[in-house]
């Protein structure tokens, strides 16, 4: 029943740590150019900091069950929203299979967290 919490924790922790440490890693996955201090700052904040915060929230949900439902619903909805945004963007401008993979992973994990699978 807690597999989505452990999976989400691990994925967000990995994303947060990797992109706080090396924001350029994102360029290999998305072909996004990080040629300025501001662009690297944005990746560290939005991907690194957000990922670390989501990992912390999921850790709290794992160890303190009174907050579990609220945390999993909120993070689940955030991931579903991300997947919907990627899907809409993909409908407008078809991306690479990597991006479709992110979309699928976000949708599946989002639903798993929302329904606490």
Any key phrases for this structure?
single chain; 117 residues; mainly alpha
**Globular, elongated, flat, extended or rod-shaped: what is the shape?**
globular
Residues in helices, as a percent range: over 70%
Share of residues in strands: under 5%
Supply the helix-strand structural class: mainly alpha
Q: What is the number of beta strands?
A: 0
End-to-end separation in angstroms reads 5 Å
Quaternary structure state of the chains depicted: single chain
Largest sheet geometry: none
The tally of helices reads 5
Give the radius of gyration: 15 Å
- Given as residue ranges, the uncertain stretches (5+ residues, pLDDT < 50) are none
Topology as a string of helices (H) and strands (E): HHHHH
Look at the structure and give the mean pLDDT. 93
Total separate domains: 1
Give a short synopsis of this structure:
The chain is an all-alpha fold and 117 residues long.
Describe the 3D structure.
The chain has 117 residues and is an all-alpha fold. The chain has one domain (3-114). It is built from five helices and no strands. It has helices at 3-21, 25-30, 37-63, 68-92, 97-114. α4 (68-92) packs antiparallel against α5 (97-114). The protein is globular and about 45 Å long. The mean pLDDT is 93.
Give a topology summary.
Layout lengths: L2 H19 L3 H6 L6 H27 L4 H25 L4 H18 L3
Helix pairs in contact: 1-3, 3-4, 4-5
